[in-house]
Amino acid sequence: MLELKHIEKSFHGKTILNDININIEKGHIVSILGPSGSGKTTLLNMLLGIEPIDKGQLIYEGVDYTNVPMEQRGFNIVFQDYALFPNLNVYKNIVYGLRNYPNISTKEEIEELIDLLGLRDHLKKSIYQLSGGEKQRVALARTLVMKPKLLLLDEPLSALDGVIKESIKEKIKEIVKEFKLTTIIVTHDPEEALTLSDKVLIINNGHIAQYGTSAEIVKEPANDFVKQFILNQLEIKRNNILNLFTNVE
Fold first, then answer.
1. N or C: which end of the chain has fewer CB within 10 A?
2. Where are the domains of the chain?
3. pTM: predicted TM-score of the whole model, two decimal places
4. 161, 201, 153, 215: which is closest to 4 by C-alpha?
5. Residue 218: burial class (beta carbons within 10 Å; 0-12, 13-18, 19+)
6. Element (DSSP H or E) covering residue 150
């Protein structure tokens, strides 16, 4: 379990996050959702260890990680722009991190991951030869070979459209189930958060507006902000989203 206890963060005297308290079960997907400036990216950076926590505790499987340096946490991130190495082919991108940690994944585990993500036919290709969805899968593979304790995804689907987006969503779900990998996603897209996650954390002005399942948020929004933020952004797709959770108790 990942526990965030009374997390607070300020910049130049301005409070960015205030009293964030949530528990995330192992192997669950949680999306962090909120308007620009709400603090969601700051929270992701604090989890990764890029930003220090001003107050509160970050507990992972009973161990206090609050002041553990980023390189010792074993938490890995896939950035929005993928951050792949253009001078390396697909296979060399995937195994790049193993140069310093060669015993983390075996040859068999690497091959299994390549097949799981459907990259077998692309291993010798240049990054420039890949589509957006293929680049996203390479970035996932490169992160997963390092066997992260916690997987962080920053806007993983923002550059993808239609069928490709749905394919990557299914791959993420498959990976999480296969490896029982706790996964946290930052997104600006309510539909993405609601259809991909076990739970959704909605942040507004640095505070938790609601933390619950997709069904709870759609059927029982905690306040007017949640209702307006979710449904206004999904007005065109509102009926589809509501129908999706109609039979969920």
1. C
2. 83-147
3. 0.85
4. 201
5. buried
6. strand 150-154
Please state, in angstroms and rounded to a whole number, the distance separating the CA atoms of residues 44 and 26: 17
151, 143 contact by CB (below 8 A): yes
Give pLDDT tens digits along the chain (249 positions). 999 999 999 998 899 999 999 999 999 999 999 888 888 889 999 999 999 999 999 999 999 999 999 989 989 988 877 789 999 999 999 999 888 888 888 899 999 889 888 899 999 999 999 988 888 889 888 988 988 899 998 887 766 666 777 777 788 888 888 889 999 999 888 888 888 899 999 999 999 999 999 999 988 899 999 988 887 666 545 555 556 556 555
- Sequence-distant (6+) residues with CB within 8 A of 96 are 85, 88, 142
Please, are residues 110 and 138 in contact by the beta-carbon 8 Å criterion?
A: no
